[in-house]
């Protein structure tokens, strides 16, 4: 049987992934027409390339339908409960860097840390009659982070896009999103809370713990790891 | 795991017992409005409850316990004093690393009695103890009322006290606040700059969002006030630590608490209540000389207990969760009452048994 390797199907993430494998002598490529999601692998036997949306790769790894997958470390943590029981990190890939951060209006001169946010959440709830809203699509990561830091009296409101605009539009009081340069945050008059990001994400090669690993597939993985210089 | 029919029979046995002691048997909906539970327990409940969606009613949760529906029912139609018993499944999404049941039975007994709260505490505990007696469980007890009284009596600002009270059920956060207010922890990032700034507001930064400039100014003023306030004394912090670290039998703890109360008179009334409760328990046949008391007991449960708290544990099966738990939750009913725009206090104490655990302990589970 072949080892199925899931790779993002488009954009910079796909190109960078191809480059990363290419540097180790493993040529991944798309075949057929521009629109056809077919792919080929050269330089190693027994590996099959599966092109998928980066957001679906965590789920496919957890279900064991692919053996290996490239996706953001943030997506694995967000989409999989008890993620480390389902996948292991084989190698951080050094690109696709983004920080998951919590940001508040820059005009909140009294707020710099999660401590401040917690105190403000209590006062906000008392004043406005509802829990302070944080717009995000990273529900699990943010909820766990806020629980670990003892923040209460907030609510998460789902925001799948244009998250930075929610504060000005008064549909949220704060936001939690990924950022690489912070440019969009600044443009929307937001500032990042001190104390470091909730998660520092990058593209990562994951191995499924749920997929079937027969002797052949294990041998292929050994070869692949050797070529990639991954110490296991 | 015992099969459901057996668990139901076991649950019915407990329910009948409670009914025989004067409880009115009540039912509760499995689907509960998520908003009520979220407002009560906070966003954390999302990780612990099953959330589902009704096209018309919006977000709903599979009941994580019976507390909320029983209190709401009582508020709507109950006359006091009231005693209720109920049984049924509760649903808890489990952290998968712990591999615990996500659906299990609870049988509960709740007392709403304004006139004699101490007697009600003793009644609930003694009833559970009686019905669980054949299992030889260890009982642990605590009293959140002591800690609440101690915090309310601290010689510090009201603002600090309410911050501590708000986090009393989050021990780590509570500790961090104590350290801050006692001057033992550094100021949070950016606080010092804010406090020395003549005018912290930056004219070039536009105001955005629902939180108004006056709310921001109010908090800046509060931070100045806090910076000027004297730290909580080392002696008071030490007394709090003594209180939280107590682990003795109820008989011995009373003596110890009397000593603490000399330096911390704010807890004297709470100690009196503890003593009165010990006497009430004794009258009901509980051997308080051997009843364990823990100062921190009840701080991490979901129920937000604020008085007497207890749990029954199997000493032969320490891997099992507590077989029964309970306590007084006046604070929770106050919040629920306020949500309904109804400012009544509803003194409430109750406890729940998990029948599949009692079955497992009596060895009938595997059959």
UniProtKB/TrEMBL annotation, chain A:
<comment type="pathway">
    <text>Amino-acid biosynthesis; L-histidine biosynthesis; L-histidine from 5-phospho-alpha-D-ribose 1-diphosphate: step 1/9.</text>
</comment>
<keyword id="KW-0328">Glycosyltransferase</keyword>
<protein>
    <recommendedName>
        <fullName>ATP phosphoribosyltransferase</fullName>
        <ecNumber>2.4.2.17</ecNumber>
    </recommendedName>
</protein>
<dbReference type="GO" id="GO:0016757">
    <property type="term" value="F:glycosyltransferase activity"/>
</dbReference>
<keyword id="KW-0028">Amino-acid biosynthesis</keyword>
<dbReference type="InterPro" id="IPR001348">
    <property type="entry name" value="ATP_PRibTrfase_HisG"/>
</dbReference>
<keyword id="KW-0368">Histidine biosynthesis</keyword>
<comment type="function">
    <text>Catalyzes the condensation of ATP and 5-phosphoribose 1-diphosphate to form N'-(5'-phosphoribosyl)-ATP (PR-ATP). Has a crucial role in the pathway because the rate of histidine biosynthesis seems to be controlled primarily by regulation of HisG enzymatic activity.</text>
</comment>
<keyword id="KW-0808">Transferase</keyword>
<feature type="domain" description="ATP phosphoribosyltransferase catalytic">
    <location>
        <begin position="54"/>
        <end position="228"/>
    </location>
</feature>
<dbReference type="InterPro" id="IPR013820">
    <property type="entry name" value="ATP_PRibTrfase_cat"/>
</dbReference>
<dbReference type="Pfam" id="PF01634">
    <property type="entry name" value="HisG"/>
</dbReference>
From TrEMBL, chain B:
<dbReference type="Pfam" id="PF13393">
    <property type="entry name" value="tRNA-synt_His"/>
</dbReference>
<keyword id="KW-0808">Transferase</keyword>
<feature type="domain" description="Class II Histidinyl-tRNA synthetase (HisRS)-like catalytic core">
    <location>
        <begin position="5"/>
        <end position="170"/>
    </location>
</feature>
<dbReference type="InterPro" id="IPR045864">
    <property type="entry name" value="aa-tRNA-synth_II/BPL/LPL"/>
</dbReference>
<dbReference type="InterPro" id="IPR004516">
    <property type="entry name" value="HisRS/HisZ"/>
</dbReference>
<protein>
    <submittedName>
        <fullName>ATP phosphoribosyltransferase regulatory subunit</fullName>
    </submittedName>
</protein>
<keyword id="KW-0328">Glycosyltransferase</keyword>
<feature type="domain" description="Class II Histidinyl-tRNA synthetase (HisRS)-like catalytic core">
    <location>
        <begin position="220"/>
        <end position="350"/>
    </location>
</feature>
<dbReference type="GO" id="GO:0016757">
    <property type="term" value="F:glycosyltransferase activity"/>
</dbReference>
<dbReference type="InterPro" id="IPR041715">
    <property type="entry name" value="HisRS-like_core"/>
</dbReference>
């Amino acid at each position: 049987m072949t080892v199925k390797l899931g790779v993002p199907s488009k954009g910079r993430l796909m190109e960078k992934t191809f480059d990363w494998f290419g540097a180790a002598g493993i040529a991944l490529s798309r075949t057929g027409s521009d629109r056809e999601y077919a792919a080929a692998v050269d330089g190693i036997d027994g590996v099959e390339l599966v092109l998928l949306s980066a957001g679906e790769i965590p789920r496919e790894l957890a279900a064991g339908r692919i053996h290996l997958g490239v996706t953001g470390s943030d997506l694995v943590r967000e989409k999989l409960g008890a993620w480390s029981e389902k996948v292991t990190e084989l190698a951080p890939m050094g690109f696709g860097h983004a920080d998951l951060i919590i940001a508040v209006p820059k005009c909140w001169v009294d707020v710099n840390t999660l401590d401040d946010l917690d105190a403000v959440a209590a006062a906000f709830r008392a004043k406005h009659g509802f829990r302070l809203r944080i717009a995000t699509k990273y529900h699990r990561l943010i909820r766990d982070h806020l629980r670990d830091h003892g923040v209460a009296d907030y609510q998460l409101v789902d925001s799948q896009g244009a998250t930075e605009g929610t504060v000005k539009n008064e549909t949220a009081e704060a936001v939690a999103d990924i950022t690489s340069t912070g440019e969009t945050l600044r443009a929307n008059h937001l500032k990042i809370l001190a104390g470091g990001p909730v998660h520092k994400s990058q593209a990562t090669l994951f191995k499924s713990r749920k997929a079937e690993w027969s002797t052949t597939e294990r041998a292929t993985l050994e070869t692949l790891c050797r070529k990639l210089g991954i110490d296991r | 795991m015992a099969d459901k029919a057996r668990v139901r029979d076991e649950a019915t046995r407990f329910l009948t017992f409670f009914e025989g002691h004067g409880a009115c048997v009540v039912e509760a909906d499995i689907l509960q409005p998520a908003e009520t539970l979220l407002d009560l327990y906070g966003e954390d409940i999302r990780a612990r409850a099953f959330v589902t969606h009704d096209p018309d009613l919006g977000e709903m949760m599979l009941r994580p316990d019976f507390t909320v529906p029983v209190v709401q029912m009582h508020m709507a139609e109950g006359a006091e004093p009231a005693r209720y018993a109920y049984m049924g499944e509760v649903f808890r999404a489990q952290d998968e690393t712990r591999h615990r049941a996500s659906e299990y039975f609870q049988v509960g007994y709740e007392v709403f009695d304004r006139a004699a709260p101490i007697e009600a505490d003793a009644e609930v505990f003694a009833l559970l103890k009686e019905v669980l007696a054949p299992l030889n469980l260890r009982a642990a007890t605590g009293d959140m009322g002591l800690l609440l009284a101690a915090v309310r009596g601290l010689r510090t600002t009201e603002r600090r006290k309410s911050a501590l009270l708000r986090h009393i059920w989050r021990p780590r956060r509570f500790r961090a606040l104590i350290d801050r207010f006692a001057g033992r922890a550094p100021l949070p990032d950016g606080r010092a700059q804010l406090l020395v700034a003549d005018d912290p507001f930056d004219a070039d930064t536009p105001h955005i969002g629902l939180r108004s400039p006056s709310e921001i100014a109010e908090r800046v003023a509060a931070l100045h006030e806090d910076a000027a306030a004297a730290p909580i004394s080392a002696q008071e912090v030490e007394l709090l630590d003594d209180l939280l670290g107590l682990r003795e039998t109820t008989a011995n703890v009373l003596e110890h608490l009397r000593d603490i109360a000399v330096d911390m008179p704010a807890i004297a009334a709470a100690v009196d209540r503890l003593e009165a409760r010990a006497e009430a328990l004794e009258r009901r046949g509980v051997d308080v000389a051997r009843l364990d008391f823990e100062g921190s007991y009840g701080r991490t449960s979901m129920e937000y207990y604020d008085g007497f708290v207890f749990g029954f544990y199997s000493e032969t099966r320490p891997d099992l969760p507590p077989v029964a738990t309970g306590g007084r939750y006046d604070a929770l009913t106050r919040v629920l009452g306020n949500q309904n725009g109804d400012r009544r206090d509803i003194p409430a104490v109750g406890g729940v048994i998990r029948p599949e655990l009692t079955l497992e302990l009596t060895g009938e589970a595997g059959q």
